[in-house]
Specification:
The structure is a single chain. This protein is α/β, with parallel strands linked by helices. Helix content is 46%, strand content 12%. A hairpin with a 4-residue loop joins strand 2 and strand 3. It is elongated, with a radius of gyration of 26 Å. The relative contact order is 0.10.
Amino acid sequence: RKEVRLLRAEKEVFKKGGDLLYRPKPVRLAFIYIWKEEWPVEFLCRVMHVTSRGFRAWRVRPMSQRQRDGMVILAHIREQHRLSLQSYGRPRMTEELQELGLKVGHRRVGRLMGENGIKIIRTQNYKAITYSNHTFNIAPNLLDQDFSATDPNQKWASDISYVWTSEGLLYLAVILDLYSRRVIGWAVSNRMKQDLAIRALDMAVALRQPPEGCIHHTDRGSQYCSNAYQKRLKKNGFKVSMSGNGNCYDNSMVETFFKSIKAELIWRNRWDTRRQAEGAIFQYINGFYNLRRRHSSLG
């Protein structure tokens, strides 16, 4: 009976502590300190694989300078984790802290994030929406997966995705300048028609006034191949480029943007109305993505 009671108590400790046995010793000692009123210290030390003498020494030992520095770094990590919409992992978090003037490396940042349960939020959902089985003309692939640009308004890329709401799907069309990865045009609609793509294009043209010869790259979707959209491109002097048949890598820059906005905003929330989703997308693009989000490919 005593053995059964001990085993049940150990089970309760592991329910509270989770994977603490695989965590550093200071984390296990802190757990013992928190729960010492509910279970005996000797029992907790045995379960956590530390000695009671070591626990007593840890309690009276003054905090080292490295531990003090770690607390400061951890406070900055929590703040940047919040400002980045919980999207920065170890590499980007390290770059952000170094830009703030903190002398810290990847390993220390990764350790502090792991010990304190600071993780990137990721979920996944997918629905194919590109309709390319149409009779419109197809333009050649001028980019050929070369997404580099030396100046703004040399290469633009566009695509359409969707957002789930309680009212139904909300479709999102965006246009990116490949030089800066900035969203220069976007539009939303409850229908995936050519006017959705045209409104995003009109916003980008009004904002940037691109020079003649700017490459405009899309997939082979019927919205982009339609006569109305192609007339808009011709009117503004664009060179038309389209991805290969079924090759998502030919438009990977825009696909990367959609991956980011879905992982950092869309998959984390549920909206009752399309209007609410539109407001959240506006805030994400103009308040975070275009202004402060770090882009690894741009340094």
